[in-house]
Specification:
homodimer; 149 residues; mainly alpha; two-stranded antiparallel ribbon; 57% helix; DNA-binding
Chain lengths: 149, 149
DNA sequence: TGAATGTCTACAAAAATTGTCAATAAAGTA
DNA sequence: TACTTTATTGACAATTTTTGTAGACATTCA
């Protein structure tokens, strides 16, 4: 449960932009993501500063992706708000916190495995795939159970 | 960075017990784990309630593992303090929080992958392995770089 | 009885999270 | 130019989580 609400909203917003034809403004993003508009007012400029989206001000303005959806990974978006993806301070890639030697040899490698798996999964998912999955019809199994009822 | 200090202390304490011949009392555990004794006073009873350690009161008392170290997984200890291991509320196995349909089809499966990888890794590591790794000498590569300096 | 130990509960301080708001800047249009 | 629409910025308050401490108590042994 370590993904904060802001991170979640950010990924939803990027997904919405990946699915949209043209630009979306803050009100449209708030509706699409089910996020408070006032929070998106903080989230979107952060995504912009990170080079993930670009914005246009004034009437008809809004946000759009700064790159093709296939080139934006989930890892990239998550990192803007979460920073290090290691589950604990002594297992980060950059400047890990110090820890006892015994921990260094045992628990640290364990958490590094979790870290690497997380990075690998998030780095392997892009917003073209996510947008496609989001558009897909409900799966057969879901329809089947609906028919049963 | 989602592993809390208490969880970390708990895993260190179980590791210390897995490496110890006989029982360790709170003072010894505090020294071995580099955790405040007052925090272990809360952590150890929780481990006991979870059936991971057992305790003996009175002079000569202390804690020991309730099962062979090989039978205690890291997942089991972590779950006592973290509960659900999903990175976000709508990707838990039990009673996930509701989320928009679009998220349900795209981001949720992504986070479920992270959840499953985490559980798989933590469930595959036991405290016999951790204790062995903790006892091991520094690796050759480490000595080599030390010689260079 | 007294010393050594674990148990329980309440709590306070600090930190992180979540959301709101008001003031401002920029761009388009009449 | 004046007005409207939109993004930008920074400060902030409320809430929740985390972290650690402390005191009163229970149990066991010598």
């Amino acid at each position: 449960m370590w993904v904060t609400r802001r991170t979640d909203y950010a990924t939803r917003a990027v997904l919405a932009l990946a699915m949209a034809e043209d630009a979306l403004n803050l009100d449209e993003l708030a509706e699409a993501t089910e996020a408070p508009r006032s929070v998106l007012e903080q989230v979107m400029p952060a995504l912009r500063a990170a080079g993930i989206v670009r914005s246009v001000r004034g009437p008809g303005g809004g946000y759009r992706l700064n790159h093709p959806p296939a080139e934006v990974t989930l890892e990239r978006v998550v990192r803007v708000f979460e920073g290090q993806l290691a589950p604990i301070g002594y297992a980060t890639r950059q400047e890990p916190d110090p820890c006892p030697v015994i921990v260094e040899r045992s628990l640290r490698p364990a958490w590094e495995q979790v870290r690497d798996a997380t990075i690998s999964i998030l780095g392997g998912i892009n917003f073209a795939d996510l947008a496609e999955a989001a558009r897909a019809e409900p799966k057969a199994s879901v329809r089947t159970s609906a028919r049963r009822t």
